[in-house]
Specification:
Blueprint lengths: L12 H8 L37 E3 L1 H6 L16 E3 L9 E4 L2 E2 L6 E5 L2 E2 L1 E2 L8 E2 L9 E8 L13 E7 L7 E7 L3 E12 L2 E12 L9 E14 L2 E15 L4 E2 H5 L14 E16 L3 E18 L14 E19 L7 E23 L2 E27 L2 E18 L6 E19 L2 E13 L2 H5 L16 E13 L5 E12 L4 E3 L4 E3 L4 E15 L2 E18 L6 E3 L6 E12 L2 E10 L15 E13 L2 E8 L7 E9 L9 E8 L4 E9 L1
Parallel strand pairs: 5-10
Antiparallel strand pairs: 1-9, 2-3, 3-4, 5-6, 7-8, 9-10, 11-12, 11-38, 12-13, 13-14, 14-15, 15-17, 16-37, 17-18, 18-19, 19-20, 20-21, 21-22, 22-23, 23-24, 24-25, 25-26, 26-29, 27-28, 29-30, 30-31, 30-32, 32-33, 33-34, 34-35, 35-38, 36-37
């Protein structure tokens, strides 16, 4: 639902649309990156000795981003070792993420930025930290810089498990026209090109796609993307200005109960409520600037984002409303303003080489409104709770990096965060204002290099924010029962011991042992409009990553991660009382091989294993594991023409993207419902054919 008052950024929409040539309704779908011309990068990852402050930190290069197929745009985050990206609804909805023993839902505790713009949305209609990356065009990514754990002062909200900074390219070696086709009426077209303009470079990209998917209710996912980017390099100064526009509409097939599949009411790809659907829009304008002098560096960025979302879902079917059904709508209209400024200077500290950085980050979110509504047949029927929210966050940080000895370096930082919320709810008791502060110290020691190897010791405090509506709430939205509001900021504490080596020529390996404590996993549940209480928790684990450049044309990589997540005390009531954290993944394994062009041929193979998870606190019900394989084979017909074939779910495994265990009710069942396993299947084997023409 659109706000009655027009947000200031609305005035920019006609300009953005005119610049990138959008006409008519947006159409589109998820896609895999097409193959662009080769770039002169020899490795898939830049994780060399001396390049980072932790063993779990690194950079994904453009070479890998352009070589590996992805089923959906957000799957580019699976290039981050240990990250799993899944989906429990229509392709237009934000994906679900897993990392380090977290079911991150749609992004909580994993901070993601795109060209300096935050992707995580606080106080979101569907879930805290909601990270929708469907506006990405993967072919235009330059790199992904990732960190894990709360050890960097510049990383703020949602970064306790980790962070990923997606950086965009400024230029393309040649223009690209790409066409991809597949079964289920999948069609994707992309045109992208960069060209000199005055003293800088102008890059544009237009993308449209459609996909019905394998679902019994055709997804009819229509998606459109348009980007326009101007970059300028003038001596010691670099700048870029980027406009983006994205829109999508789709029908959703959400998770379904196993008993309905077993009874033959639907098959694995069927839906209980075929009227579930969604709409999404996003428009943004962002600027970044960098100035590097002899001993100083300035970085600044600013952005404005306008977004709108409608989601119609039904997860319990006829449990709450046996006559009309339990469908509900989550909707929001949002404007985000923000930016950051940092200054780094080099100078001696106690006679040692030292870099010191101070910085500030600010963002302001306006939601006019954000709400939960009753619905039927994909149409709104009533208001459960509707709120107008103003939310401000200010982060101030300082960090010092000093090399004390040729083999000893320290990184120490402090971040101070201020969060302020103002909620005006349709339920008077849930309106209010709150302000909170939190200080987060961090310290790291890096020992080495010795024999092309180094050791890392990392300690740090972090945090995540809670939904503003949960902070000020005093009664439940549906029943009016009294509740206690959530704390505004939840502290996290992390520690990590890591080792990295390049002792063997062409081989990069790292290992990290880590632990993360959360003061609370209290969350605001957008589906219910109320805060769900849970206690403090601890996660710990071990990660191993290795990259091997076996030949100039052959790269091998493998990642293995084991983790354990437990509440510090027993949670829930009998019969499900226990200490297991539902949805926490224990084992993640990924292995791949990338073949650069051998004559006209190139290819890639990737295997991913996503292990079983507890679905209840007592671990009495567990999910199944998921093993999927992707493959790409390509052939260069001419210097400017490439054809490729991508195969997803290569072995056609009947696996699930997600699984939950809860009570739902089908027509004719008992009023209290039936506790059952609910799942959303991974897509069956599919083949996509792509033609790329450079111009």
């Amino acid at each position: 639902m659109r706000s009655a008052a027009t947000p200031p950024f609305a005035a920019l929409r006609p300009l953005v649309l005119a610049l990138i040539g959008i006409a008519g309704h947006p159409t589109g779908s998820a896609q895999e990156p097409a193959t662009l011309p080769d770039v002169a990068v020899s490795a898939n990852y830049d994780n060399t000795v001396g390049s980072s402050d932790a063993a779990s930190e690194g950079t994904v290069t453009q070479k890998l981003l352009r070589s590996r197929p992805t089923l959906r745009p957000a799957e580019v985050l699976e290039f981050v070792p240990g990250v799993i990206v899944s989906q429990h609804s229509g392709d237009g909805k934000a994906n679900q993420y897993y990392l380090r023993g977290f079911n991150l839902d749609h992004g909580t505790d994993f901070a993601t930025t795109v060209d300096g713009m935050p992707a995580n949305m606080p106080t979101h209609a569907h879930g805290q930290g909601y990270t929708d990356l469907n506006f990405l065009i993967p072919e235009l990514l330059q790199s992904i810089h990732y960190r894990k754990g709360p050890y960097a002062a510049e990383d703020g909200d949602f970064s306790s498990a980790g962070s990923a900074r997606l950086n965009l390219t400024n230029t393309l070696p040649q223009g690209l026209a790409s066409l991809t086709v597949s079964e289920h009426q999948y069609l994707r077209a992309l045109v992208a090109k960069s060209t000199p303009l005055t003293t800088g470079t102008l890059l544009y990209a237009l993308e449209g796609a459609h996909n019905n998917g394998p679902w019994q209710t055709p997804q009819n996912h229509r998606r459109f993307n348009g980007w326009l980017r101007y970059s300028l390099a003038d001596g010691d100064t670099q700048q870029s200005l980027t406009a983006m526009a994205y829109g999508a509409r789709w029908r959703s097939t959400d998770q379904v109960p196993q008993r309905a599949v077993d009874a033959g009411l639907i098959d694995r790809f069927g839906a209980i409520d075929p009227s579930d659907r969604g709409e999404a829009e996003r428009y943004s304008l962002s600027w970044q600037g960098t100035r590097v002098q002899d001993d100083r560096e300035w970085r600044a960025n600013a952005y404005v984002i306008q977004s709108r979302l409608k989601l119609f879902s039904n997860f319990t079917y006829y449990l709450d409303n046996p006559v009309e059904g339990d469908q509900f709508e989550q909707a929001e209209s949002r404007v985000v303003y923000g930016g950051g400024l940092s200054h780094t200077w080099k100078g001696p500290l106690a006679g040692r080489d030292s870099d010191t950085t101070v910085g500030a980050q600010w963002r302001h979110d306006q939601l006019r409104p954000v709400g939960l509504y009753t619905a039927q047949g994909g149409l709104r029927t009533g208001v459960t709770q509707e709120s107008r929210v103003q939310q401000d966050s200010l982060g101030l940080y300082a960090q010092n990096d000093t090399r004390w000895l040729p083999w000893l370096r320290s990184v120490a930082g402090l971040r101070t965060e201020r969060l302020s919320v103002d909620v005006r709810s349709s339920i008077d008791a849930n309106s209010g204002q709150r302000t909170a502060w939190m200080h987060s110290p961090k310290v790291s020691l890096i020992v080495g290099p010795w024999a092309k190897s180094e050791w890392f010791f990392n300690l740090g405090h972090g945090f995540h924010s809670n939904d503003a509506r949960g902070i000020t709430a005093r009664v439940t939205a549906k029943t009016g029962d009294p509740i206690e509001g959530a704390v505004p900021l939840v502290r996290t504490r992390g520690k990590e011991l890591g080792f990295r080596t390049e002792w063997i020529e062409g081989l990069q390996s790292s290992i990290a042992l880590w632990q993360l404590d959360l003061s609370s996993e209290l969350v605001f549940v957008g589906d219910a409009g109320e805060t769900e209480a849970s206690g403090a928790s601890r996660r710990h684990g071990i990660e191993f990553n290795t990259r091997y450049q076996a030949r100039p044309w052959l790269s091998l990589d493998a990642d293995v991660a084991f983790s354990q997540a437990r509440f510090r005390s027993t949670q829930g009531e009998a019969p499900n009382a226990g200490r297991y954290v539902p949805g926490a993944v224990r084992t993640v394994v990924s292995a791949g091989a990338t073949v650069s062009e051998r004559g006209p041929w190139f290819g890639q193979f990737q295997l991913r294993y996503f292990g079983p998870r507890p679905l209840l606190e007592d671990n009495s019900v567990r999910s199944t594991g998921t093993t999927l394989a992707y493959a790409r084979v390509g052939y260069r017909l001419r210097p400017d023409v490439i054809v490729s074939m991508d195969v997803f779910n290569l072995f056609n495994r009947q696996a699930n993207d997600i699984e939950y265990y809860y009570a739902s009710r089908l027509p004719g069942e008992a009023t209290e419902g039936v506790s059952d396993r609910h799942s959303h299947p991974a897509e069956p084997r599919s083949v996509r054919l792509t033609l790329n023409v450079n111009f």
